[in-house]
Amino acid sequence: MRFEEIQKRFDVLFREVNKVVVGQQDVIEQVMAAILCDGHALLEGNPGLAKTLVVRTLSDALDLKFSRIQGTPDLLPSDITGTYIIDDSAKKREFKFQPGPVFANVVLLDELNRAAPKTHSALLEAMQERQVTVGNSTFKLDTPFLVLATQNPIEQEGTFKLSEAQADRFLFKILVTYPKYEEELEILERFTEAKALPSVKAVFGKETIMGLQALTRQVPIAHDFKKYAVDVVTRTRTEKKLIEYGASPRASISLVLAAKARALLHNRKHVSKEDLQAMAYPVLRHRIILNFEAERNNMDEDAVIEKVLGR
Amino acid sequence: MEFIKKALYELKRFLFIFDLSRFFLHSLLAFFLSLIFLVLFQISWIYALIPFFVTFLFFSYRSFRENRLSYVEYHVPSLSETLRTVSDNVDKDNFVVNLLKSDVLQRLRTLDTSSFATLRSLWFECLALLVFAFTVLLLAFFNVQFDYTFLLPESSSSPVLASPEKVYDLSILYNQGNLSEVLGNRSLAALGDTALFLEVNPLASEIDISEISESNAGDYGDIPQFPKEIYTSYDSSFSDDIPKENKDIVKKYFEGISQR
Description:
The structure holds two protein chains of two kinds.
Chain A lengths: L2 H18 L4 H12 L4 E5 L5 H11 L4 E5 L6 H5 E6 L6 E6 L6 E5 L6 H13 L1 E4 L2 E4 L5 E6 L12 H6 L2 E5 L4 H13 L12 H13 L4 H16 L4 E3 L3 H17 L7 H12 L4 E2 L1 H5 L4 H8 L3
Parallel strand pairs in A: 1-8, 1-9, 2-5, 5-8
Antiparallel strand pairs in A: 3-4, 6-7, 10-11
Helix pairs in contact in A: 1-3, 2-10, 8-10, 9-10, 9-11, 10-11
Chain B lengths: L1 H39 L8 H17 L2 H8 L6 H7 L6 H15 L3 H4 L2 H23 L28 H6 L4 H4 L60 H16 L1
């Protein structure tokens, strides 16, 4: 596929997704970037902001197998990974592995913070190793594999905060914000008049996605920008005035990779400084822990990242 | 993709020469500017070499630290960020990098030197250089000098002056006390190292030679007794042209004095 052809296909993809989803361009772009980076994303936003809709529509447009898990306190690891069941369809009764919803290409874990830590850790192996171990057997997950978990920033009662180690496994933390006034009007029009949502055409296939993932890693980056990425991540560790714990070297890797994906999505054959700055927010916001001074100054993660970027 | 390597090599080579010329020009400006002050304060021109080298080293160091290709990118927006990326990934060979290389090569073909060599600043610097050079020439020609000696502290006895082996600024010594008996008429100090033709006319002299009598023998019998710690000695540097017998006489004389 030619480079120009890829860009055309991306345009078609975004058009298809926008048939269903109104606005949320940054969210769609960042989820797409996570897919290109072969990473996982955490979506945070208030209820009713189309988090689930974005993910479902994107997986439809990408022709990927989609599964959804609702996070609840009683959700067990086996509910995600799958378990052995007795199969008596044959003459002989035997245990047969019944794959859980994690055996899909795009796994949406709604309200992740409602699930117990035990269930969180069951996801760790799947997210990191791309495999699931049940009993003595290990099962490889299908590729591409993307976990998209949603979190609700309000209603913290009865929730289990994601551990720092697990939060670090997510490539991005994507903030889903309220739509603009005009967008909300369009939402009203689209969802109150038509009986069913328009169907989305599949633009990319599984193989193409994997090809694009390989292509993303080929996007070159200048040495100056590599240094800039490391500088930004290192600054989160040295900015002791506002940050208690900074980002790990994994953040540097994620930042460069995310910038490469953004460059590809923006029809560029190289990483620019703008890509690094734009992707620093979703890459770093769940990897830094602010201290009291930042809270006292009413600064959230994005405000601190902005300061770290020197903007 | 050897073309891109060659193109980058050419560009870097040109930038190196261009930078050297620019830094030389900056340094020359610093040299002439400091020369103006040195001439005004009558200080040796050699000291103007210090700002020359400092300026040259400063710009060279700064240039060495930063990526010079970003200078081209700054002046040629169509190459923004791509030139450095290609240069850093020139040895990589994959689909995207190769596409970027051919893109950059296309743009480099249309690149003109004047697009990143700002001629206006070069002209301005050359003009400034000309002005400074003429100022130095005029200052030297009209012997314009700034008398800063009054600013110096009294203890300062050896200011750094041009050609110190030739000129000895007597005006400074005059300011240190009444030394006209030792150094002669004060007005002579203004002559500096200018050759002075003197004709002594005995008739015009205030001194009557006939009144000058022969010298009388002195009586040095009442020479006071000095303690042993006080003695006289001679410096070997003065002994070069004195015959040995005369030295012995002088030595015995002073030994005689010291033993009394």
